Amino acid sequence: MNIGEASKASGVSAKMIRYYEEIRLIRPKARSDNNYRIYGEDEVHGLRFIKRERSLGFSLEETERLLALWQDKERESGAVKQVALSHIADLERRIAEMSAMVKTLKHLAHCCGGDKRPDCPILEDLAGQGDAADEDCKPRRR
What we know:
This protein has six helices and two strands; from the N terminus they run H-H-E-E-H-H-H-H. The protein is an all-alpha fold.
């Protein structure tokens, strides 16, 4: 099948397939006489595998590692589990960081009057001049 058909069968855009080829994550089965890429079921299956990995937030490096492990029939499952556990720890760290950001921004928004006055604790904090994130504030009346 050509790249368009492989894209449709795998759910991965032709642009991403070309990119994955460029970084050598996947390779077409062959090239036609007019140099078009030819893909088979194995390549489409690999593209679906990559798409699922990426949907779970794995980095390209992790994707490359898991793809290699998936293709290695002699692999130990412990190696796969280690990649997954490392990714889980990274996701949990990022979630904690984002939760802290949400908490800070909610507090700053709470401290902002949101009225026609020019003073704004959100902008003051972003400029490093405010103390609204550190102090309990009372929301300004609207």
